[in-house]
Amino acid sequence: MPIARDQQARYGDIIMTTENNWDIEVTADPDVTSIDGAPAIVTNADRWQVLGVHEHDGTIEVQRIGDRARAVLPADYAQRSAVLGYVGTMHSAQGANAEIGLPIGDPDTMTKSMAYPGMTRGSDMNRLYMAVKIAGEDEHHHAHTDVETEPRIYDRNEAQAMFMSILKRDDREQTALAQAEEALNQLAIGEPHDNHRDAFGGINPYVAQLVHTRAGRREQWVHEYISEQQARQDWERSSERIQQRAQERATDREREHERSIDDHDDGREIS
């Protein structure tokens, strides 16, 4: 049965819908209880197993993987918005499960949030393949060149370095403060100021770094001054305690001396 992208769907295939549709009737599995009492509509990135194909009208009978709800996809919808579901984008793999996950990504553009769903779909194994573009290629097409290139397999250290660069690339939204702090950290290790012109709300990165550095030094001076004052106070209190103990010992010796004199006088014979 023809579906989108010039693909064919047959009995038992896994297909994925790529467009939300509120008009297609979805029937709940009687053994599955939905939270709101009704099954979800046909939505983008849903995966379905083909239960039957109807040649006379082009419809496809499917059962959703997960809640086992059933639907009949009209021919026009299936040919426009249904594709084979064995391969998909990493974002569309959210919630899907398989025994083995084999995500493929570009180490120059892939981010940590993109890698996570791809690396957690397989229950037995997950293996990430990183496709390195040849110079001149875009993301979806091979470069047209007369020079034949030989495929290259990178060694373990190179692969680890690529994977670490992916983990450091975070595309989640940041607060202005977090963005500025990250930019200051990068400037501190020597990154060019031009790389962070948008990180400080219109303030020149050099000025922002200078102000931050001076503020940091002032804060350091304040801490040093407070530490010195605290040390002086501790020394003064310690000196006072030492003097007090010395005075107490001197007083104790004087009292002992007086008692010894009194004892000597008590034992003297009076004539």
UniProtKB/TrEMBL annotation:
Q: Where is this region: Disordered?
A: 229-271
Which InterPro entries does UniProt cross-reference here? P-loop_NTPase
From the Swiss-Prot or TrEMBL record, give the protein name. Answer: Uncharacterized protein
Organism expressing this protein natively: Mycobacterium talmoniae
